[in-house]
Design a protein that fits this description.
By secondary structure, the chain is α/β, with parallel strands linked by helices. It folds into 2 domains: about 180 residues, Aspartate Aminotransferase, domain 1; about 250 residues, 3-Layer(aba) Sandwich (Aspartate Aminotransferase, domain 2). The chain is about 40% helix and about 15% strand. It has 14 helices and 16 strands. The strands form 4 sheets. Strands 4-12-11-10-9-5-8 form a 7-stranded mixed beta sheet, sandwiched between helices. A 4-stranded mixed beta sheet has the order 1-2-3-15. Helix 11 packs parallel to helix 14. The protein is globular, with a radius of gyration of 21 Å. It binds ligand KE4. Ligand KE4 binds next to helix 4.
């Protein structure tokens, strides 16, 4: 596969952009390869700068659930361009998207639009602290909520001790306000609340984590979060930046029937352009400036072009049969991949919820970050490279999700499974050397 242009462009990019990329995971470092420089997308396909075509299972990390260049999304952006790109003033389009979100997401009565998932989660945490008058935030190891200081924290020596920054530049004082719990461990969370409950403003969780690979919540876990937070007067924040409009039109909270106090959204609601959002009950959201005292702002919040793309995307997703179609094709893929791995004699644990899935190179059930880390990431790197050579573009990290879009046909899924059969054989052949 010719890669000359991607290699040349990567070399040039590194002179002007740290690591040559504007978001770290794009650099392909955890799979030990030079990144692909993309020229264009079309449906389920990406085309790189060397003309190579790939079936895309990254989908811009989740937003492109309709596939690349969906005609209704591109037409909505084109129509909006006739009027302008940004005004820094309220527009009707923002109210339309806000209303669509409140009508779709069961627990959201009012919503603030921002420009990224990071802004959404950072603002939701500030709001929870203001609403409760408390400072501590509980998150779960392996969950990612964007790069605000308070979330770049891992567990200290013990779950009850202060968090430890995962990045330089995060002050110890900030880390002290974040407590890490283990996903799917209600007893551990109860213990944290027994010890610090009165100081905890909120628990923030990816209801179905995609950032340690896909790890489904065990039966009763999300409902347990709801009960524990209610018992201690803390808010429950669902970070649905990935799962919102991914797992159902009402997100994970509709799928699992558990209502958080605040919900963070992003990715899909922008239709591929920059939109984030946080929302919840009016009683809480009314604290947000200028209605209330909690400050948050953004030059491009509710940007007309981005909002227009989001409105078109949600309209397309609101049609009958969309999520059944996604689930059917994603199940075909998961079953096919598991069969291909078994056939090649490679131990792979496949986790899937709806159209988000991950294959872990481990024989253990993956139920939290610790078990996700039992995956052999060297095998993942071999598999990733073999699939890339087969024209299949997966997440360049074991600890991400693969996403199926409406543009993935059953024929495309079939081709993916055939490619995976060869890629798993490549893993089996290198097993003795890695
Ligand atoms: P952004 O600031 O990247 O829009 O959203 C942050 C965020 C918040 N919450 C969840 C559950 C998320 O998954 C994300 C961002 N996801 C990553 C990949 N899983 C974005 C890709 C990247 O960092 O390049």
């Amino acid at each position: 596969m010719k890669k000359d242009n991607s290699i040349r462009l990567f070399h040039e990019a590194q002179q002007y952009i740290p690591g040559g990329v504007n978001s770290p995971v794009r650099a392909f470092r955890s799979v030990g390869l030079n990144p692909v420089f993309v020229k264009k997308g079309r449906g389920a396909v990406l085309v790189d700068e060397d003309g190579n075509e790939y079936i895309d299972y990254v989908g811009s990390w989740g937003p492109l659930i309709l596939g690349h260049l969906h005609p209704e999304v591109t037409e909505a952006v084109r129509e909006c361009l006739e009027f302008g790109t940004s005004f820094g003033a309220p527009t009707e389009r923002e109210t339309v998207l806000a209303r669509m979100i409140t009508e779709a997401v069961p627990s959201v009565e009012m919503v603030r639009l921002v420009s990224s998932g990071t802004e959404a989660t950072m603002s939701a945490a500030r709001l929870a602290r203001a609403y409760t008058g408390r400072n501590k935030i509980v998150k779960f190891e392996g969950c990612y909520h964007g790069h605000a200081d308070m979330f770049l924290i891992k567990a200290g020596s013990g779950a009850l001790t202060h968090g430890v920054p995962t990045s330089p530049g995060v002050p110890a004082g900030t880390a002290a306000q974040t407590i890490n719990a283990d996903f799917n461990d209600l007893e551990g969370l109860e213990e944290i609340f027994r010890s610090a409950g009165r100081d905890i403003a909120a628990v923030i969780v990816e209801p179905v984590p995609g950032n340690m690979g896909v790890v489904p919540p065990q039966p009763g876990f999300l409902r347990g979060l709801r009960k524990i937070t209610e018992k201690y007067g803390a808010l429950l924040i669902f970070d649905e930046v990935i799962t919102g409009f991914r797992l159902s039109y009402g997100g994970a909270q509709e799928l699992y029937g558990v209502m958080p106090d605040l919900t963070c959204l992003g990715k899909i609601i922008g239709g591929g352009l920059p939109v984030g959002a946080f929302g919840g009950r009016k009683e809480i959201m009314s604290l947000m400036s200028p209605a209330g005292p909690v400050y948050q702002a953004g030059t491009l919040s509710g940007n007309p072009l981005a909002v227009s793309a989001g409105i078109a995307a949600l309209k397309a997703l609101g049609r009958p049969g969309v999520y059944e179609d996604l689930d059917k094709k994603s199940s075909l893929l998961a079953v096919g991949l598991a069969g291909a791995a078994r056939e090649a004699g490679v131990e792979v644990r496949l986790n899937r919820v709806g159209s988000m899935l991950s294959g872990f190179f481990t024989g253990r059930e993956v139920v939290d970050f610790k078990t996700a880390c039992t995956s052999d990431t060297r095998k993942y790197a071999v598999f990733f490279k073999a699939m890339l050579e087969e024209g299949i573009y997966l997440a360049p990290s074991q600890f991400e999700a693969a996403f199926v879009s409406l543009a993935h046909t059953e024929e495309i899924i079939g081709r993916t499974v055939e490619a995976a059969a060869r890629a798993f054989k490549a893993v089996a052949e290198t097993e003795d050397f890695i």
